[in-house]
Amino acid sequence: MIPRYSVPEMTAVWSDEQKFQRWLEVEIAVVEAWAEAGVIPPEDARTIARDARVHVPDVLGYIDETHHDVTAFLRSVADSLGPESRWVHYGLTSQDVWDTATSLQLREALDLLRADLARLCDVVARRAIEHRGTICVGRTHGVHAEPTTFGLKLAVWFDEIRRQQARLEAARETVSVGQMSGPVGTHATVPPAVEEAACRRLGLAVAPVTTQVLQRDRHAHLISVLAGIGASLERFATEIRGLQRTELREAEEPFDDGQTGSSSMPHKRNPELCERVCGLARLLRGYAQIGLENVALWHERDISHSSAERIVLPDATGLLCYALRLFTGVMEGLRVYPERMRANLESTRGLVYSQRVLLALIESGLAREQAYAIVQRHSMAVWDAPASASGLQPTLRTLLAADPEVSGRLDESRLDDIFDPGSYLVHEDESFRRLGLLPVPAIPGSGSASGQRGEP
Length: 456
Known about the structure:
Blueprint: H1 8-13, H2 16-36, H3 42-51, H4 56-66, H5 69-79, H6 94-130, E1 135-140, E2 143-149, H7 150-175, E3 177-178, H8 192-202, E4 205-206, H9 217-243, E5 251-252, H10 272-293, H11 304-332, E6 335-336, H12 338-346, H13 354-363, H14 368-384, H15 396-401, H16 404-407, H17 412-418, H18 428-434
Parallel strand pairs: 3-4
Antiparallel strand pairs: 1-2, 5-6
Helix pairs in contact: 2-3, 2-6, 2-8, 4-5, 6-7, 6-11, 7-9, 9-10, 9-11, 10-11, 13-14
């Protein structure tokens, strides 16, 4: 991971120091399991657990000689022990140590991501509640559709984040497994009981059956989940980028004092944080593809996945950690402009209320096709009306009120109701209650007020 996008806590998880320490933890757990089984003398197991050390510079130097990470690691561990070092790695093969230790590293990395995702969820929930009732225009195909609220938009994000949290938990469980099944996975050199005892000491579940390696569908699932979370962040960031366009300017990512947006244009305030999130999401999707390609290994094992995983696992977890923290900061400092939202809503001069007019005419007794034709005719007139010398242009309401086919069915009071954006908020609170962002009203007669709008 390049320093620009690194998070120190996550970088530490994937450092050589942490990797080799996890390897040592696995080796010690297996030694203790062998001692419990009566194979290794208890005093030797105690000495190994107490004195075994790994010196990273030595390991790296030995790798130059052995061209093998694990044998170099074992040589360094042996340097810290006496004759009892013969029990280290007893019955194991390299992948037993590598895969199980990687599971420990992944679990630690996912715990960081789990905390970061929870923080983002909390921030989005707070901003959703803050902007419950902040009316804005909803857009489909990029074109004005009907009024909605900015809070409801964020509530949808909140629900999506919760789904991603559930997926992350499932992926964490999938990779929180260990295996010490020996060459080709037969347990011929490491009985299942020793494997189970060692994994129990490490706090990992036991893979029911393996082929010397943990099957890479586990890791492919994990990286796909990370990419999916990145895709959600990209969706949210893309929305903010769209709303920050000069013509809209309904919301804007934070812009600090002294910050510059362009080397040549001093006026610029660009959505560069959200654009960065979008770019990182693309990388995560690429890593998901690599995870899938790592699933197919030759026979009981090969290491074609190894070189890719040395890059993909640290980078995917690291990039997502960085992107989560970056976007959480965007949401905490997001600038929202309700007046601009209302102005944009009104800029199409009532067109966003066309469906309510259509439904009201249908309720008055008109056939749907007839009602649709009337509303569309007047809507197209509003769309196509040229600017007048006075700057005044027709609105959908004025055209409808002047049409006898409409005015005979919908009086001024009914039109007031139809063209009231607040009417679109009638069920907003119910959506918030479904998400748990608002309390469920008390049952009438229970002594508590019900059905009232209020903060949770």
